[in-house]
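Reviewers asked in the last cycle whether our approach scales beyond single polypeptides. To address this, we selected a multi-component target totalling 642 residues and predicted its structure end to end. The input consisted of the following lines:
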Amino acid sequence: MSAQPLAPAVRARGTIRRWTRLSTGFTGGLGLLIVALIFVPVALGANTVQDITTLLTYVLMAVMWNALAGYGGLVSIGQQAYIGLGAYATVWLALKGVNPYLGMLLATLFCAAVAVPLSFIMLRFRGAQFAIGTWVVAEALAIWVSLDNALGAGTGTSLDQLDSYSPSSREHYTYWITLAFAAFFIVALFVLLRSRLGSSLQAIRDDEDAAASVGVRVVAGKRILFLLAAAGAGAAGAMTLANTLFIEPTSIFSVNYTAFMIFMVLVGGLGTFEGPIIGAIVFYFLQNKLGNDGVWYLVVLGGAAMAFALFLPRGIWGTLEERTGLRFMPLGYRVGRASAGRAEPEEPA
Amino acid sequence: MTWVNDVIQGIMLGGFYGLLACGLALMFGLMRIINLAHGDIAVLGAYLIYVVLEHWNTSPFVAILPVLPVMLLLGYLLQRLLLERSLRSGLLVPLLTTFGLSIVIQNLLQQGFSPDVRSLGAQAGSVATASWQVTSQLSIPAIGVLTLGVAVIIFGGLQLFLSRTQPGRQMRATAQDPDTAELVGINSKAVYARATAIAVAIAAIGGMFLAIRSDFYPYSGPTYLIFAFEAVVIGGLGGSLWATLLGGIVLGVAQTIGGQINPEYPVLAGHLVFLLVLLSPRGGLVNLRRVTA
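The resulting structure, written as structure tokens, was:
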């Protein structure tokens, strides 16, 4: 971040702030929204609860893919590896007698654990090799799982252990654990990006070589994002299982999950904090409106991804930020002039 | 003897993967972009041949003749209308653009041709089924020999084109340094469009063999994209063209030997060999950074 070396010189005439009135309000609003969402099952009907569960799973997927690609510059086409692993680990733990909801938590940790050795292999690659390498790992895992008869082999398996809950309490528990996961990973990313490490991550995002040249530990930063994204996708996989109750290797390890993540992040805004959430909401409504048209819906999705990549590469949120200069989340630094008595935003950093 | 048989089958399978990988390697070598729609373009070629065969009772080897100019044109337009815009903004934008294109092609094929599984094996006649029985353990299928032969001809032809002709020299110059190439009067945009046209047409030839050798359906593309890409990477990204064919052969042999160990392993064995090669210090069998595309 350029703000740090500049700081002593600028401080003589101005102030450096992270929180503005707008970002305080916005962050507070997001916090209140998460708190309000806790009460949805109490206040609203079963359909709404299921809808929001689905939406939150999308948000989690998008935020995690963006953490990897938007901040780490690591374009993965293989996040479905952790979606599948998270779901199958939950089933496997349930077969061993672990409570399914506890199993989802453990499966998430398991995905992060698997990502540790994988990160030492995958982070040696850049760009194209990383993209296809992650995809091949996902394909290999899908084949490996489909060879395991205890997990239903190629025909799939279901999470029967959830049947011991009544349908409505099952729905509520699934909702709350999805909300908890989504909130945890969003807050974790927020805290991470505001930390010292976050500054180096944003520097890596902006220019990896330049960041390395001023002493940013690029690989360490990327590894943390790699593990976080693996855990997040694993949680999303466990959530998908809790929502559908049945999985099979070809669909839970489908590259379509990553296609959806890419779509949501591109539409919302790659490398922005809020963008993926917007993208997930857009994706959710598109799926509700056009989802029944199957094929055409996917044509529209692919076409929109192309259009955003070519014509609006910063996405909805990134373009909005660029045009207005507004920053809704306090992730960067703002330099203001103190001489006029009140801080005048000069240049968002 | 079964091992010898496996290796020979693998080499011929490798010719097929080499054909699929050829265009991918050409585009990557020249423009440093990965065309994630490459597999779907090959499948599109297979469907176009299928359309020709619906109107004209002939063999796929003849039916591909009117398809090739169409694919050349599609490749040219693909570069001019889509990829050109995405080129100078790093790795990410072309990757995402072609990923979107891949989804569009798959689903348009699904819409136009229904999800039915098809094959052109029957129309290819005896070529698809004939084989020479060398010993009781060793038989050589005609289609395998033909695929490998066509692959060698195409790789050789492309190599000759790149080294001996004026447009080929322009491509090598542009691959090496597009800005300097522009300085000496090469229109890099035209070079890129020509290369993509060639890549797409070769993908269609790969698609033809795909359709003769096995079934295909609208979503077949990604599976073959992965194999093609594995061939390119095993050969060494940015290495020579022949290295890509060699990469395809390594992948093919890995798959047939994996299948010999356990009938369920062929693809898994290929993936593992790919990952092992990636992990090797050089990151590919041949990494010469030669100037060939």
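Chain A touches chain B at residues 69, 73, 75, 77, 121, 124-125, 127-129, 131-133, 135-137, 139-140, 143-144, 147, 255, 259, 262, 266, 270, 295-296, 298-299, 301-307, 309-310, 313 (CB under 8 Å). We regard this as preliminary and will revisit it once experimental data from Aim 1 are available.
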